[in-house]
UniProtKB/TrEMBL annotation:
Keyword Oxidoreductase (UniProt): yes
Gene encoding the protein: ilvC
GO molecular function: oxidoreductase activity
Pathway: Amino-acid biosynthesis; L-isoleucine biosynthesis; L-isoleucine from 2-oxobutanoate: step 2/4; Amino-acid biosynthesis; L-valine biosynthesis; L-valine from pyruvate: step 2/4
InterPro entries cross-referenced by the UniProt entry: 6-PGluconate_DH-like_C_sf, 6PGD_dom2, KARI, KARI_C, KARI_N, NAD(P)-bd_dom_sf
Domain called KARI N-terminal Rossmann: residue spans: 10-199
Keywords, alphabetical: Amino-acid biosynthesis, Branched-chain amino acid biosynthesis, Magnesium, Metal-binding, Oxidoreductase
Keyword Magnesium: yes
Highest taxon of the lineage: Bacteria
Family in the record: Belongs to the ketol-acid reductoisomerase family.
Annotated protein name in UniProt: Ketol-acid reductoisomerase
Gene3D superfamilies: N-(1-d-carboxylethyl)-l-norvaline Dehydrogenase, domain 2 (1.10.1040.10), NAD(P)-binding Rossmann-like Domain (3.40.50.720)
Residues where Mg(2+) 2 binds: D208, E244, E248
Record SUPFAM superfamilies: 6-phosphogluconate dehydrogenase C-terminal domain-like, NAD(P)-binding Rossmann-fold domains
Amino acid sequence: MAKINFGGVIEEVVTRSEFPLEKAREVLKDETVAVIGYGVQGPGQALNLKDNGINVIVGQRKDSKTWDKAVADGWEPGKTLFEIEEACERGTVIQYLLSDAGQITLWPTVKKYLTPGKALYFSHGFGITYKERTGIVPPEDVDVILIAPKGSGTSLRRMFLEGRGLNSSYAIFQDATGRAKERVVALGIGVGSGYLFETTFKREVYSDLTGERGSLMGAIQGIFAAQYEVLRANGHTPSEAFNETVEELTQSLMPLVAENGMDWMYANCSTTAQRGALDWWKKFRDASKPVFEELYAEVAKGNEAQKSIDSNSKSDYREKLEEELKELRESEIWQAGAEVRKLRPESP
Ligand SMILES: NC(=O)c1ccc[n+]([C@@H]2O[C@H](COP(=O)([O-])OP(=O)(O)OC[C@H]3O[C@@H](n4cnc5c(N)ncnc54)[C@H](O)[C@@H]3O)[C@@H](O)[C@H]2O)c1
Ligand SMILES: CC(C)(O)[C@@H](O)C(=O)O
Ligand SMILES: [Mg+2]
Ligand SMILES: [Mg+2]
């Protein structure tokens, strides 16, 4: 494993050059990888594994939209696409990619097929870490492993097709066969990861729940809304407020930050922007840090997991969710955004 100095802290990572695809194929040559669930991660991981020459089948509920999607993606019923139970029976690696709530419901069924020597694979530390709440306790004679792509399943597939790779974390919760490490790393490379960094199930779920509620989605949406509302309240038009809040960030600055870092961005904007951004960032950090601390504490107590389990198990879950998503979709900022996106010269 390569030792990398991340800003003064040495970590070990697995790169594709030290664990090439040929090695992954060799490790997995006698395995049948059953990808259970074809929502967001399922398609990305299953298609990348297939294109990487791994023996993979998909397990999905019949008579569902996602079954039809799997067929449209080229999975063949009875050959590479099966009902969940049949796929679990055929798989030697069971990639448990149902929604976290679906994993709880289906656990008694899936557990039956975890015969000795199989591997149970997750892309989230949720089910295992919060086992008192999920009831997911695997038998002791199977490997329990995790590859968590750090991004959407949509990006996992898109980046793979572009010859790039999304980074993933990996973890071993249980090594029953003595092969858990080579299995998990081979699967990580097989699903198209750019490189792999080590974690535990607990650290994965704590950081993931914090990130998606925080700077990846929750906090950023909150900051977008706050700035947009202030600009609008002060007489700025929707197009001006949206461009100055979101469009410039995603289209101009973030690609540069992705390439070079925020430190470079600070060094390569106007002196005026530089002065202001240097003066204001600590104020924003200090204002938001207590919220992040509260968020992390809620995650660590299991309250965020419980909220998500409870809301997912309500009978009117879908309707309530649709109402909340509609509110976001119909908010002025995202309505303005839809128009701004259409005006991009490259838009169809
Ligand atoms: N969405 C992402 O991009 C992403 C990123 C990293 C990790 N993850 C993790 O990967 C796993 C899968 O997430 P996802 O977003 O792809 O899931 P999802 O919400 O898209 O659902 C996946 C599948 O679960 C099936 N399902 C849900 N409830 C079911 C039930 N009761 N019985 C049978 N099938 C059921 C759905 O039909 C669907 O095919 C989760 O552990 C998630 O935390 C997701
Ligand atoms: C793609 C995300 C936000 O990183 C993932 O964690 C999820 O749960 O969908
Ligand atoms: Mg997540
Ligand atoms: Mg995530």
